[in-house]
Amino acid sequence: MATVAPAAAGSKRGGGRGRKPLTAVLDNDANISAGKADAAAVHSAQKGKRGPSRSSKAKAAASPAQAPADEMAELQGMLERLRLEKEKAEEMVRERDEVIRKKEEEQERLQAELRKVQRAKEFKPTVSFPLVKSLLEKEQEGDDKGKKKGKGKKGKPGHERKRPCTAYALWLKDQWNEIKKENPEADFKEVSNALATKWKALDAEAKQPYEEQYRQEKEAYLQVVGQERREAEAMKLLEEEQMQRTAKELLEQYLKFRQEAEDGDSKKGKRKNSKKDKDPSKPKQPMSAYFVYSQERRAALVAEKKNVPEIGKITGEEWKNMTEAQKAPYEEVARKQKEEYLKQMEVYKQKKIEDAASLEKEEEEQKKIMKQEALQLLKKKEKADNIIKKTKEKRQKKKQENVDPNRPKKPASSFILFSKEARKQLIEERPGINNSTLNALISVKWKELSGEEKQTWNEKAAEGMAEYKKVLEEYNKAHSSSA
Predict the structure, then answer these.
(1) Chain centroid to CA 316: how far?
(2) pLDDT tens digits, residue range 355-399?
(3) pTM metric for this prediction
(4) What angle do CA 311, 315, 318 make, to 5 degrees?
(5) How far is CA 110 from the centre of its chain?
(6) Of the candidates 262, 40, 259, 252, the residue with the CA atom closest to the CA atom of residue 127
(7) Closest by Cα among 289, 287, 294 to 315
(8) d(CA 46, CA 287)
(9) Could you give the dihedral angle defined by the CA atoms of residues 462, 466, 468 and 474, in that order, rounded to the nearest 10 degrees?
């Protein structure tokens, strides 16, 4: 059967107003046309191979020599760019690694410091404060309480030691009532003026008993006050000595603790119980009726393999459902236990009172012993001070006896010469400076001097020393000839 194909290949646009009508083409005609077109394409390709143009021949002659050089240059440029990018990337990686490493080191250091701080918080010294300090604090607290209770209308403390009355005050006490009987309507000022006039008129013989009484009371007062001051000084000296020992012991404990913390020897995970230790001699609280019942039922419920919450729930429900008659035996047991507990508490309280009295007595005895020890320590200190004082006085006296006023004096050293000059300058610069700061600044300035600057002062000191040796030699010759 013949098919119709459109003849589009042979159609041409333009050239006329209309289009030529399509004509039917048979299959054989179409195949013949296609074969002609293929043959024309093959012929043109063969023609192109056989006869290339002159320009293509010139390009073909130049390209074999230039193409490898261009490709090589391009490859080298790419390699250079890749190498630079690689170096830049490696540098960035190194910087990032360095930052990460520093952060990790800083984090490790902070964690180590945190561990040290946490361990330092756990430091609990076993050293106890000196007994002298605790006894003195208790005594001071007692005195303060007594002063508060003994304050009168004028606010004066009632436990202060009173000074002895003067001879005139003693005589005034004896004469006041007599003058008041003679002049009952006289006021305080009139009575005082009258007694003052009468006291001035008394002779020495009449005043002597009162003056003698005042002298005796004053001597006793000064003796007691002097003893108290001496004891206070001795106790302070003993307290300082004990505090030094305590501080040394505390420092040793802390250093040991720090060493153990740094070495990792301290035990972790073990926390000491912060609760106050209970007194083992104190009687235990009695059980209630419900607890007596639950204790009785516990054995049977444990045998049934009930756990603690279940036991509590079961016994609670059973106790609620029990009648008063069923609860009565347990309440009776609880009542007897409470009575026994109250008796034991009375005995315990009495024992605590006795223990407190005994402890107070022991503290008083210990205080006396420590006062004696403190006085002995004070005597040793006074003896040592006296020996040092006498030795210094002997040396000073001997030095004054042996020193010849005509003997040449040693010259100043290089530092002394420098300090004199620097002192004047610093006083002018800082008019209100104290002596200790001034000496410190001079020392700093001397240390900051260079070798050449110090050499100048050393030369001045050497000149003074040479002059001193000459004068001393002349003095020795004159002294030996006179002797």
Answers:
(1) 53
(2) 888 888 887 887 777 777 777 878 888 888 888 888 888 888 777
(3) 0.34
(4) 145
(5) 17
(6) 252
(7) 294
(8) 124
(9) 170
